[in-house]
């Protein structure tokens, strides 16, 4: 028995569809699962597969034509089967169209009241030599285009008035937008990519930091530090006291080490069934290398001078880039520093480096207005962010540590004390 194939609803917002292409013609055999036609919706052009077997006996919507959802798209049945009854029944279900009243109708109709009749003028067909204008616009001047074509035109800033539609009665459809160049040469790009095996270093980084991020409940504390006095102190040290140059990073490491000595709760690690409070201070310093990131460790940093710290970090960085670091060089950290200030980064957050409970992200020193004694004056500010494992370090503990760290950098005399540089 013949079965009706109706215009499918292929999206939540679809109310009508356009047949972009028929893959079968009348008389062809169709198997379930075969692509019967391509339907253009308001979102995409999609392949429509048949849900039944049979011979294509009738096409209800020709290529390029529009039909509402549930309208007859096609009829499948046995070869030679009579489908006139089905078509007649469907026609009887269609809503009746009111006959348009013309002037001629009104002339031949006697009005029921004596008042002068209200006339309705029929719009005569205007012969237009410009076929494009005739076929692609409606009587009110609106361009005839599918919903999908309108959306694509809007996204690509295309004027629909300039396009010749190839759909039914000049309707503009998706392929017309795709084929329109606007009189300009179009650039055709090539999609390409390359896959590279993951290095062992990157595998370790992914494993350790992935585990850290998804198991340790991170929270973040940011503080702004005025660096004017630190700038003066560094300049004085480098100009007169020692031939070895001291960097801001060296000063940061020293300030962190002294702060950890005052706040041992931050110099700790989560062990699952215990919290380890380290009495020694080993600071990991993140170093970027070609394959990823290494974190060599400055051991007993609180007992080292600025120049000792600087020389050690430079040696680590050189050996890291030449792939000459040994495992003992990057093991045993109790706290980590990640500094991106030299790359122009103002502020960022870092993922905790296991087994540490905290990591300090150092931003760049920015020249900015600051308020001193009620006056706005030029200043230099550095923002730092402490990432904390909430299983070990609470907000108040982290905040106290940051304020101590801030006081050391804002008062470098406290940082240096009586120690040799």
Keywords:
421 residues; alpha+beta; OB fold (Dihydrolipoamide Acetyltransferase, E2P); six-stranded mixed β-sheet; four-stranded antiparallel β-sheet; 24% strand; elongated
Describe the structure in your own words.
This protein has helices at residues 84-93, 103-107, 131-136, 147-155, 174-179, 200-215, 228-241, 248-262, 306-321, 395-410, 412-416, and strands spanning 3-6, 16-22, 29-30, 35-40, 45-49, 54-59, 66-68, 72-77, 218-226, 268-270, 275-277, 283-285, 287-289, 292-294, 297-298, 335-339, 358-372, 375-389. Mean pLDDT is 84; it is low at 99-135. Helix 8 (248-262) crosses helix 10. Strands 9-18-17-16-12-15 form a six-stranded mixed beta sheet. The chain folds into three domains: 3-93, RNA polymerase II/Efflux pump adaptor protein, barrel-sandwich hybrid domain (OB fold (Dihydrolipoamide Acetyltransferase, E2P)); 130-183, Dihydrolipoamide Transferase; 200-416, 2-Layer Sandwich (Chloramphenicol Acetyltransferase), CATH 3.30.559. The N and C termini lie far apart (98 Å). The protein is of the alpha+beta class.
Topology:
Blueprint: E1 3-6, E2 16-22, E3 29-30, E4 35-40, E5 45-49, E6 54-59, E7 66-68, E8 72-77, H1 84-93, H2 103-107, H3 131-136, H4 147-155, H5 174-179, H6 200-215, E9 218-226, H7 228-241, H8 248-262, E10 268-270, E11 275-277, E12 283-285, E13 287-289, E14 292-294, E15 297-298, H9 306-321, E16 335-339, E17 358-372, E18 375-389, H10 395-410, H11 412-416
Parallel strand pairs: 12-16, 16-17
Antiparallel strand pairs: 1-8, 2-4, 2-7, 3-6, 4-5, 6-8, 9-18, 10-11, 12-15, 13-14, 17-18
Helix pairs in contact: 8-9, 8-10
